[in-house]
Design brief:
This protein is of the alpha/beta class. The protein has 3 domains: about 240 residues, TIM Barrel; about 220 residues, 3-Layer(aba) Sandwich (Rossmann fold), CATH 3.40.50; about 200 residues, Jelly Rolls. The protein is about 25% helix and about 20% strand. The strands form 7 sheets. Strands 1, 2, 3, 4, 5, 10, 11 and 12 form an 8-stranded parallel sheet that branches. Strands 20, 21, 23, 24, 26, 27 and 29 form a 7-stranded antiparallel sheet that branches.
């Protein structure tokens, strides 16, 4: 939902504006008390409350018990957020109308019950305002008449006479109440109640904001200014009480938004929980799940090559913007990739608001470690910042450097913030938090943090060295986001702590052109060798036990190619072909790595260095050397209804499979991969794996090199080649 920019600009530029209680306490002639009656939709009001907080404005919000929204399971979390945002919570009094309609037996006891409810939530209510219920005009009374403060000895006090039910003068006679002839009010069933039995003070109330003596009343009641005293306002004869109903100030603009976050921050979970009849919610729709010819694109499921194509990225965003302009339905996309392309997003799809989703940086770091982010310095699957000394940093350091860049970008480029910890308190809190950033959603069922967000978060324990790294890289950011120490829950951010500035230019460092040109400027360049079509599992030059030779290949392409011919003659390792499950393998040998699957209902694979899926024996596989990291290139041809992926298989000293890791999804183009071996790995192999439905699989190109990370330039970038996409692999069968 969007609010009038003119309104926000007006409120933000108004001096001496504050809550109604602050107006009463100030005694200044130029003070302005801002008040909002929440008659219909607390979610709209909550969004306005967040926007007012952002521009440094405090207001008093009057809530209406008995309204349809009051019974919502989200109501308590909603009320508490108004207070968290620095606003005053008050009661929109309608108990006399409730009594007149036969909904309650005693208006006085009902009023006390409503006040007690606020008190139980930790919200002290010191103000009421009178609601102009239709029953007030049908039966000719004001809810304010319940209090003795309105009454003199012989009837209403003069300053309460001749007003509307809302407590203001209305030039239209049908909205002017006749003065009562008695303090006894009788309803159609004959029940009677005495008006004015108790004072505001006896209920612990300071004032009825409907009629503040000595203030100028400006109100948009009914969507017009007809009830406002503009003549006194022009003369500025006193302080002003400004009443605005939030629903009158929303715009008709379709409100699209993209929720940006780092990976492992709960974006997929939050997208699943966000449901509304009036909007469309997607997860990584841009790049991945946007369909072409009824097929999801999944542009990032192979590697992040697509992120290196500015034209393709901008074209995708232009298509998105075109769809958005023609849509009357808000689109909310949760996305972890667009964080790195905020300039393109702003240029091509400016109608999308940017919202940040945060999670405790420590838990995100641990989750990324568990998923092998930056385990290799040449991680081709994840975007990395251009950072000094990248190749000599530990994996934990690289993750923290990435997160520092990512969090800094989110903080600087967004004004609306969500926190996973707040979203997962309860279903009501989820609705309230989303509404505060302008995203409407129905109450989700079963909000559980441990359900599927991240089952790897067993603890947040770190070694002393990691703790020092975390504090250096992310400590200040964690505190700014309200997380405090490493083991403390997030504290709500104070009203003055949220960003109050316009979004600045994104500070994410540019993602360079890739490993192939990562040392341009130093006069050298790393090249990957081009094998002849049809060769498979050949052990190229990088696996020789001579790291110095690997270094010399950076700018000696002709020598490398000559040396490659010699190596290929000496080192040949046949591929092993398998059909079936990993534990029930039927295999055969082939030099050319071509597999025709006669059982397409079962998965299949090609082991590139001759091992079995579950075991490695004899001279199959390659000996692991943890002093090195590995990178390579592969190209495949296949016929399949599902997907094909490249897997790394690691074996222990007994030759048993210790773990398998999906490196990339294979597309048929020439693709690059990189990995680092576990400290317990004795030998390893690589496998092209086809899920059920694969009929034909062939390796047309394969290269593998190893390298000492310390030999690479400090400013490390990624080798990105693939440009095609297909269906993604969900996991092993």
């Amino acid at each position: 939902m969007r609010f009038s920019e003119q309104l926000l600009a007006l409120l933000g530029s108004t001096p001496n504006i504050g809550t109604t209680s602050e107006l009463l306490a100030s005694g200044e002639a130029n003070a302005v008390g801002l008040r909002h009656d929440v008659d219909h939709d607390p979610l709209v009001a909550l969004r306005l409350a967040r926007l007012e907080q952002r521009i440094g404005v405090r207001a008093t919000y009057f809530f209406l018990p008995g309204a349809p929204y009051w019974s919502s399971v989200s109501m308590e979390p909603i009320l508490l957020r108004f207070s968290r945002f620095g606003h005053e919570v008050a009661l929109h009094n309608n108990v006399l109308a409730q009594w007149a309609l036969g909904q309650i037996d005693c208006p006085y006891s009902e009023l006390q019950r409503q006040l007690d409810h606020f008190q139980e939530l930790g919200l002290r209510v010191s103000l009421v305002s009178s609601h102009g219920d239709r029953a007030c005009y049908d039966y000719q009374f004001s809810n304010s008449w319940l209090f003795s403060d309105c009454w003199a000895e012989n009837g209403l006090r003069p300053d309460w006479s001749g007003l509307s039910a809302e407590g203001v003068i209305d030039p239209r006679s049908k909205f002017t109440l006749a003065d009562p002839t008695s303090r006894i009010l009788t309803r159609p069933d004959g029940a009677r109640v005495e008006l004015g039995k108790y004072s505001l003070e006896e209920f612990g109330l300071d004032a009825d904001a409907s009629n503040l003596h000595g203030t100028i009343m400006l109100t948009d009641s009914g969507g017009t200014w007809k009830r406002s005293d503009f003549s006194s306002f022009r003369e500025r004869n006193g302080p002003v009480s400004l009443l605005l109903h939030p629903e009158h100030w929303t715009t008709n603009d379709v409100d699209h938004a993209v929720v940006l976050s780092t990976a492992r921050s709960g974006s997929k979970w939050a997208a699943k929980q966000t449901r509304s009849d009036g909007s469309r919610t997607t997860h990584e729709f841009i790049l991945n799940n946007r369909e072409k010819n009824s097929v999801p694109q999944h542009l990032t499921s192979t590697d992040i090559a697509v992120l290196k194509e500015p034209r393709g990225m901008r074209r995708s965003l232009q298509e998105l913007a075109h769809e958005a302009k023609g849509s009357t339905e808000p689109h909310i996309d949760f996305n972890v990739y667009l964080l790195h392309f905020l300039d393109a997003l702003q240029a091509e799809a400016p109608m999308y608001r940017k919202v940040a989703l945060f999670r405790h940086p420590l838990l995100v770091a641990q989750s990324l470690i568990a998923r092998n982010w930056f385990h290799s310095v040449l991680d081709v699957k994840h975007p990395a910042p251009i950072a000094p000394n990248w190749t000599v940093l530990s994996q934990f350091e690289r993750v923290c450097v990435y997160l520092r860049h990512a969090y800094t970008t989110l903080i600087d480029a967004t004004d609306d913030w969500l926190f996973l910890e707040d979203l997962t308190i309860s279903p009501g809190d989820f609705v309230a938090e989303m509404a505060s950033v302008g995203i409407r959603t129905t109450t989700p069922v079963g909000v559980s943090h441990s359900e599927k967000i991240d089952p790897s978060d067993a603890s947040n324990q770190m070694t002393p060295v990691e703790l020092s790294i975390y504090r250096e890289q992310l400590g200040d950011i964690a505190r700014k986001l309200g997380y405090g120490s490493t083991d403390s829950p997030r504290r709500p951010i104070a009203a003055t702590s949220n960003p109050t500035h316009a979004p600045s230019a994104p500070c994410w460092p540019s993602i360079g052109p890739g490993l192939a040109d990562m040392i341009l400027g130093s006069g050298t360049q790393l090249v990957f060798l081009e094998n002849a079509k049809g060769t498979v599992a050949k052990t190229p030059i990088g696996l020789l036990r001579d790291p110095e030779f690997f270094r010399r290949t950076f700018n000696l392409r002709h020598r490398v190619l000559k040396r490659l011919e010699q190596v290929l003659k000496l080192l040949r390792s046949p591929a092993r072909l398998g059909v079936g499950t990993a534990t029930n393998e039927v295999d055969n040998q082939a030099d050319r790595g071509i597999l025709r699957n006669s059982s397409p209902g079962r998965n299949c694979h090609i082991m590139l260095m001759g091992s079995r899926w579950q075991s490695c024996a004899g001279d199959t596989g390659l000996v692991a050397d943890q002093a090195f990291e590995y990178a390579g290139r592969i190209s495949v041809e296949y016929e399949t209804d599902t997907s094909v992926a490249l897997f790394l298989l690691e074996y222990d000293r007994d030759g048993s499979l210790s773990q398998h890791t999906r490196l990339i999804r294979l597309t048929g183009d020439s693709q690059v991969f990189a990995f680092r071996l576990s400290s317990q790995t004795d030998r390893f192999d690589l496998a092209a794996y086809g899920s059920k439905g694969t009929r034909y699989l062939s390796i047309t190109e394969f290269e593998l090199v190893r390298f000492d990370p310390a030999s690479l330039p400090n400013a490390c970038e990624l080798l990105l080649v693939s440009k095609s996409v297909g269906a993604s692999l969900e996991g092993l069968d």
